[in-house]
Amino acid sequence: AGAAAEARFISSAKGKGLFATKNIRKGETVFVERPVVSSQFLWNALYNYRACDHCLRALETAEENAQRLLGKSSLVLPHPEQCSIRKDLHRQCPRCQVTYCSAECRQAALEQYHQVLCLGPSRDDPTHPLNKLQEAWRNMHYPPETSSIMLMARMVATVKQAKDKEWWIKAFSQFCSKTANEEEEIVHKLLGDKFKGQLELLRLLFTEALYDEHLSRWFTPEGFRSLFALVGTNGQGIGTSSLSQWVHACDALDLPMLQREELDAFIDQLYKDIEKESGEFLNCEGSGLYVLQSCCNHSCIPNAETSFPENNFLLHLTALEDIEAGEEICISYLDCCQRERSRHSRNKILRENYLFTCSCPKCLAQADDADVTSDEEEEGEGETDDAELEDEMTDV
């Protein structure tokens, strides 16, 4: 199929960018991309957000999902036939019992990385090197989560299992890399004040669990830090939810007006109740590395956005405007609220989390605005949390 977009080198300062190879209409899907590697966040999994261990498809039915988020096992959802979860297809790894949404995902995981990472009967053994690594990570990186040490573990395991190791090492090396002091800033952002001591502890545990001589550089202090920075800069948040899939399916139902109003009111109330109980943590969440998506530069007035409409790790990039052949395709690394703030505030977030100052048309047009933030922005300044490290968690 002729791709609608291709990556091109722009300059050493900007690195790569993604450009349209033909005219793309507003609302069109520019591409659908599968990650090179992905992983669910560790706290998310610990709190029983049950997802396929390979593609992150939510495993609970919409009703189970809503019951858990509400803390109410008696809840009944109308139109249960609109739930897309097929439990009859779910499969487990016979050795360690992690669950997959299908035999295909189980096989794909086994072929790419799971042979190395399968804990077998040691799944609940706290002294197993991989369990020690995960426990250490959870104690350093609390929710809201933006990354996972297991994404890096899967990168190592992928190379270990591969017949053509060089191909994979090259695949991972094409992700944007940073200078040593930039790497340091990103790691600092991920691990907080104690980052040097914590990073060294993680590196030792990572080495104990996964060392491989083909990848010896990744286990040195410098190499481990760049691996960390690679995941910190390029990792794209993935969110899946069987409840939101059910809501989309219900929205599409052709119902008599009264029934439609009743259903809409039920759904609105459900989300209000869930928010009281579970706050903003609605989705199964993880992150992945996507070759094309990672080439997309940021704009405060993006012409495309990412989403996960298939309830798994397949990323859809959709045009928000008509895009002409040859035009650069940009997404926003900021969420809607952040995009409405002053140029000064937007760039503060971008510098802290992505190490660049934005020069998109909106920022250039506001270049003469005073470098101060309005009062309510000042109050909000302290609230920029680590979730911004990652491209915004896209609502599914």
UniProtKB/TrEMBL annotation:
GO CC entries:
cytoplasm
State its Enzyme Commission number(s): 2.1.1.359, 2.1.1.372
Region annotation Disordered: residue ranges? 370-396
Enumerate the GO terms in the molecular function aspect: histone H3K36 trimethyltransferase activity; histone H4K20 trimethyltransferase activity; zinc ion binding
Query: Which Pfam families has this protein been placed in?
Result: SET
Boundaries of each SET domain copy? 5-334
Listed A to Z, the keywords are: Cytoplasm, Metal-binding, Methyltransferase, S-adenosyl-L-methionine, Transferase, Zinc, Zinc-finger
Single GO BP term: negative regulation of gene expression, epigenetic
Query: Which reactions appear under catalytic activity for this entry?
Result: L-lysyl-[protein] + 3 S-adenosyl-L-methionine = N(6),N(6),N(6)-trimethyl-L-lysyl-[protein] + 3 S-adenosyl-L-homocysteine + 3 H(+); L-lysyl(36)-[histone H3] + 3 S-adenosyl-L-methionine = N(6),N(6),N(6)-trimethyl-L-lysyl(36)-[histone H3] + 3 S-adenosyl-L-homocysteine + 3 H(+); L-lysyl(20)-[histone H4] + 3 S-adenosyl-L-methionine = N(6),N(6),N(6)-trimethyl-L-lysyl(20)-[histone H4] + 3 S-adenosyl-L-homocysteine + 3 H(+)
Which EC class is this protein assigned?
Answer: transferase
> Where does the UniProt annotation locate this protein?
Cytoplasm
> What name goes with this protein?
Protein-lysine N-trimethyltransferase SMYD5
Organism of origin: Oceanites oceanicus (Wilson's storm petrel)
Q: Which gene encodes it?
A: Smyd5
